[in-house]
Amino acid sequence: MSRVGKKPVTIPSGVTATVDGQTVKVKGTKGELSFVVPDDVAVVMENGAVKVDPRSETKRARAMWGMSRAQVASLVEGVSKGFEKKLEINGVGYKAAVAGKVLKLSLGYSHDVDYEIPAGVTITTPKPTEIVVAGIDKQKVGQAAAEIRKFRGPEPYKGKGVKYADEFIFRKEGKKK
Known about the structure:
The chain is an alpha+beta fold and about 180 residues long. It is built from three helices and 13 strands; from the N terminus they run H-E-E-E-E-E-E-H-E-E-E-E-E-E-H-E.
C-alpha cells in the first residue's frame, strides 16, 4: 500500500483544481499547470481535495498511485508558492551574470559558458557567486539547476565548481610529501 497515495491533496484557498477524465488542471496566483494521470490510477475531486486511487492491485498501478499523488501535490504547491533552487559558485574568478535570456558563466574555461534560460523558469544572480533558479514547475526548476551544475560540478580537493546551496561536498586530503 502506498503511504503517499492514501493522503488526499488538499486545495488551499486561492487555488482552483479541476479533474477532467485523467487530466488534473490546477490554477493559482502564480500560474496554471496540468498533469495527465496514468490510466492505472483513478483521480476524483472530493470535499475540496483531489483523491487518487489505484484501479487494480498490480505492481505498476501501486507505483503510479504514489507518483500521481506526488505530482498533483507538486502542481498545487507550484501554483500557490512556486519552487526555488539556490546554487553557489566557488573558485577564484568564477562568476555568473544574467544578460537577457542568457546566463553567462565564467567557470575557469578558456571561454564563457552561455546557458539559454528555458521557458517557465526565471534565473537571477543576487551576487556574482550565487544563482537562484525559480519557477512554478518543479521538474523544470530542478532540471535547469542540474544543467547549470553540470557545467562544472564541485570537486573534492578544493571545493571549486557549482554546487547546490544546501549540498555538502565531502573534502579529500591532497598529496603528502
